[in-house]
Each structure stands twice: as structure tokens, then as C-alpha cells.
Write a structure and sequence with these properties.
CATH superfamily: Aldolase class I
Helix content: 40-55%
Strand order of the largest sheet: 3-2-1-9-8-7-6
Oligomer: single chain
Radius of gyration: 16 Å
Mean pLDDT: 96
Number of domains: 1
Order of helices and strands: HEHEHEHEHEEHEHEHEHH
Structural class: alpha/beta
CATH class: Alpha Beta
Low-confidence stretches: none
CATH topology: TIM Barrel
Number of helices: 10
Distance between the termini: 15 Å
């Protein structure tokens, strides 16, 4: 059985990365994104109150699939899971983070940037990986190459992905979804410009659906 986060990203292959430190802003942004069709949200554990933001978003709308991103170690993973994270994302491949998530029955999407890392993750039994930093690690050309070598793997591409190139990534069979902070620009969040965030989200959803219609659902 596929994890709920994978099924949701197959339906709408766009993952907003939320980098906020204010719980009210986090709830407002998540609600705006959810209403625009993005029901999977990754809260980055970068700011001083990121865990509080994760907990607030998770509690506000149980219909959203809220995960924790930038999880660097086992302690962070466990803290995020206690706060309500329904999936875990790491920038790199770390066994302790993977095992912490698996022990709680929660999907984990560790990051890779090379064929060596992808092979290691594959042999750990993982099938969905984060390709990061996508732009610096070779972009769509690298994604295509990894997909040919590891046809059973699927990737969430983040890092250098934006409205200008998401279609290029989503045209690839290996790409499950794309993600980025461009869906919730810092200045729009700070200024409470929810209309702008909603517009950007709707445009991304429309683009993603057009790509899936053109190239087929994976």
C-alpha cells in the first residue's frame, strides 16, 4: 500500500516548503495553500519556532498532510513526530533519521544528490527520495539519468525548482513531485499577502496538472 503522502503527491505533484517562525503566519499560509489545492505541506525545521509552527498547522487542519523538512538527526525526527508530522524529509541520507521514522510507521524521504547515494538508499529499502539541491546537482538532466539507472525509484526535486522550470521536472517519469519555498515567498508571508500566495499556488497546481495530463500519471 502506498503511503498517503505519495498518493497525494501523485494527484497534485507540488510540495510547498514552509519556512516560517510565527505560528499565526504558518497557519494562515498553510490554509491558503490548502484552499488553493496544495494539501501536502512541508514545514522546514530551520527557524527557532519551527516545531511550534509544525504543531500549529497540524492541529489547525487535520485534512492537510503536514510533514517536517530539514530533519538532520534522530532527535529532530522524534520531536517533529511528537508535534504531529505525518512524514519526514531530510536534506541528506542518514540512517538514524530513517529508522526513527520507520519505528513510528511514518514515511521518510531522505535526500540524495548522487548515484552512489541513490543506490545506498535503494538498498535500504527506500523507494521515494528527495533530489537535493536539484539545480546544483544536475537538474532535469541528472534526474533523467538517475531515473534510467534506478527505474524503481521516484524523486521529489527541490532546491532551485521554481515556477519557471517546474514543468521541465514534472515531464520526467522519475519525478514524483517538485517542491520549493517559491510557493510561499518570504515577503508575501511577512506582508500577509495571502492573495498572492493563493495565486502562485493555483498557477503551480494548473501547471502540474497540465504536465501530468500531457505525460501521463506515474
Amino acid at each position: 500500500m502506498k503511503p498517503a503522502v505519495v498518493e497525494a503527491l501523485e494527484a497534485v505533484p507540488v510540495l510547498p516548503l514552509l519556512n516560517v517562525s510565527d505560528t499565526r503566519q504558518a497557519v494562515m499560509v498553510a490554509g491558503t495553500l490548502g484552499s488553493a489545492g496544495l494539501r501536502v505541506i512541508e514545514v522546514l525545521l530551520r527557524g527557532p519556532r519551527a516545531i511550534d509552527c509544525l504543531a500549529a498547522v497540524s492541529a489547525e487542519d487535520p485534512g492537510l498532510l503536514v510533514g517536517a523538512g530539514t530533519v538532520l538527526d534522530e532527535e529532530q525526527a522524534r520531536e517533529a513526530l511528537k508535534a504531529g508530522a505525518r512524514f519526514i524529509v531530510s536534506p541528506g541520507l542518514d540512517e538514524t533519521v530513517v529508522e526513527a521514522a520507520r519505528a513510528c510507521g511514518v514515511p521518510v524521504i531522505p535526500g540524495i544528490a548522487t548515484a552512489t547515494e541513490a543506490q545506498r538508499a535503494r538498498n535500504m529499502g527506500l523507494r521515494v527520495l528527495k533530489f537535493f539541491p536539484a539545480g546544483l546537482a544536475g537538474g532535469p538532466a541528472m534526474m533523467r539519468a538517475l531515473g534510467e539507472v534506478f527505474p524503481e525509484l521516484r524523486f521529489v526535486a527541490t532546491g532551485g525548482v521554481s515556477a519557471t522550470n517546474l514543468a521541465e521536472y514534472l515531464a520526467l517519469r522519475a519525478v514524483l513531485a517538485v517542491g520549493g519555498t517559491w510557493l510561499a515567498p518570504e515577503d508575501a508571508v511577512a506582508g500577509g499577502d495571502w492573495a498572492r500566495i493563493a495565486r502562485v499556488a493555483r498557477e503551480a497546481v494548473a501547471c502540474a496538472r497540465a504536465q501530468r495530463a500531457a505525460h501521463g500519471s506515474l
